[in-house]
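Record now logged underneath.
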Amino acid sequence: MTSKLTIRLRRNGPYVVEGADVRIVDCNGVEHTTDRLPIALCRCGASRKKPFCDGTHSKIGFQADEPADSL
């Protein structure tokens, strides 16, 4: 049985991926893994653990330009 994948957009924070086995592959084809669940992906661009969030967004006062648009 496959669990439903959910991506939550946190206000001025990371994208949080929950609920399924997820492969994270960068633009060079390198797969990134983590034992932490849920997975938090950096959105501010300042994390030292990219593509994963390390909490830097709160230290630098990251403010998203706007909320996500509806499809």
